Amino acid sequence: MSDTPIGDYALLSDRHSAALVGRDGSVDWLCFPRFDSPSVFARLLDHGAGHWSIRPSVPHEVSRRYVDETVVLETTFRTATGTVILTDALLAGPDDGGHRLGKGVPHVLVRRLACAEGQVPMEVEYRPRPEYGLIAPILSQVDGGVTSRGGAEWLVLTTPVRLGLGDSTAHGACTLSAGETLHFGLHRSTLEETPARIWPQEELASRLDSTVAAWRSWSSLHQAYEGPWRDLVRHSGRVLQALSFQPSGAIVAAATTSLPEEAGGGRNWDYRYAWVRDSSLTMEALWVAACPDEAGDFFAFLTTAAPAMAEDRALQIMFGVGGEHDLSERVLPHLSGWRGSRPVRVGNGAWNQRQIDVYGELLDAAYRLSAQLGALDDDVRRFLVACADAAAEHWTDRDRGIWEVRGEPRHFLYSKVMCWVALDRAIGLAGLLAAEDRVASWRSTREEIRETILREGWNDRVGAFTQYFGSDALDAAALMMPIVGFLPAGDPRVLATVDAIAEHLTDEAGLVFRYRTAGGVDGLAGDEGTFLLCTFWLAQALAMSGQVDRARTTFERAVAYANDVGLLAEEIDPASGELLGNFPQAFSHIGLINAAWAIDRAERGVPATVAPLPC
């Protein structure tokens, strides 16, 4: 069982795969060669499932930061006798002026150890356990490193420190003096790829430096936000970029699987896939934080991944990062889970749910990003038109909604609102989509949806819009009504709903729950933490209604839970204040970006418009 706090980890990414590094210098999560590949290290989920640690062998203090404008991690260890700096990165491809960060990556994790002053004794432990800890590979000494054979992967560790072998684990120690620098590298390949190899020290040093340069080049080219919380917003933009899969344009919801929504509970899901909803909202957030030139890649990915739209107009709600459809869920019974949170799952059973809100998020992103998309090819136009037609056809359906409940389908308010958004944005895009002939029909259905929501979604007993038609339960997703422009933020019904959520759907710290699980709507046992995205939604809705001081207070309450390197998980434990859920979570960083932008607009007296604007 792993018990390291989730907030102790930092993210590395090459826009193909991800690693998590603890404050103790241990890589406890690494999936090669894709975000959703089986892990090489998974101590995050079980103490015996693999790790690679480099740290002082004597008592020490730790501080960390990301190298400016990058996701390259720098950890400083201070001991009584000296100071060493550990720099970690998944190598990016060559810097191409910041346009295609991550293209042509070699699947190498590099770790640079440099002694800044004095002398520091160090220890290294390398314990690969491929396929989520199932395999204890055969390790062999070679000149300059250690090879690992087991399963489908070929791993080669470059190490300037000689390591002893035993029990499928490599151990070693050394003492660094001021001015000394060592480079370690873990290279992964399969039998079909260019074989992994030992890397010369000079080449590792050069490639690490070029990775820093590539991230900085991308940041310089794309990031121009200058509003409040500038550094947090820009950093969140880099986190979202780090969660994107360069080869296809897909964007994952988070870098991990099965980090729980309640410590010791069973609400543990695999988020290493591309949800249409999350990806669309990510592209919109990048519009604020990073001016995405990947917008075309993302829509091309969906156009390729979603051919079923031609059959029954039902858009699958999520895909593998390569466009895979079947994401069948299974349990890994050999893993004990983070703090005993079982089961540990891979795959995600929500892949075949009906969720009709996705048409709205997708078309909203297309509308917002239309300046970046430019002229659309025939396939993308047909796809987006089909999404609008599907929203018009299916808006009366029950579904499982934004929160992917595993209970009965219902007429969720948010799903209906997003069908309205789908048609509203399609009307605005009609010229770009060459779909002027559909506008009259879309407009008629849009108005029918609006009238139904206002009639069935408002609950006089509660004095607010509620979770689903006929429900008395609150749901934070109702905060999106003013954000997407369904109703003005100053509408009395919106203000009443915002106040009801702020009063009845928050914990003692003022953080917002998605909904109350005690109602049983999600069909799951157990409870969950407060949801950071929903707290940022509250801040955004408050800002849009002119309540800027309340918005700032709510925003600052949420960002206070970012860890020491500015990363947010999905949820917060109401009792302990610890981060919960998969990490880092795109939704949380999306919420941060959009709320900061809305507060900035409100303070400057500029409407937080949903209209498309150039970067």
Keywords for this entry:
15-stranded antiparallel β-sheet, 615 residues, Glycosyltransferase, 32% helix, alpha+beta, 20% strand, single chain, 26 strands, 17 helices, Beta-galactosidase, Chain A, domain 5, 3-stranded antiparallel β-sheet
Explain the overall architecture.
By secondary structure, this protein is α+β, with helices and mostly antiparallel strands. It folds into 2 domains: 6-218, Glycoside hydrolase, family 65, N-terminal domain (Beta-galactosidase, Chain A, domain 5), CATH 2.70.98.40; 223-603, Alpha/alpha barrel (Glycosyltransferase), CATH 1.50.10.10. The protein has 17 helices and 26 strands. It has a 15-stranded antiparallel β-sheet that branches. α7 runs parallel beside α10 (413-428), α9 (378-394) crosses α10 and α16 (548-559) packs antiparallel against α17 (586-603). The longest helix has 22 residues, at 201-222. It starts with 8 loop residues before the first strand and ends in a 12-residue tail after the last helix. 57% of the residues are buried.
Explain briefly what this protein structure is:
The chain has 615 residues and is α+β, with helices and mostly antiparallel strands.
Largest sheet: 15 strands, antiparallel
If classified by CATH, what would the architecture of the largest domain be? Alpha/alpha barrel
Give unreliable regions as ranges: none
Radius of gyration over alpha carbons? 24 Å
Q: What's the overall average pLDDT, rounded?
A: 94
- What is the helix content? 25-40%
- According to CATH, the fold-level topology of the largest domain is Glycosyltransferase
Number of strands: 26
Strand content: 15-25%
What is the CATH C level class of the largest domain, in words?
Mainly Alpha
Shape: globular
Distance from first to last alpha carbon: 46 Å
* SS-derived structural category: alpha+beta
Q: What is the subunit arrangement here?
A: single chain
* Total helical segments: 17
Overall tally of domains: 2
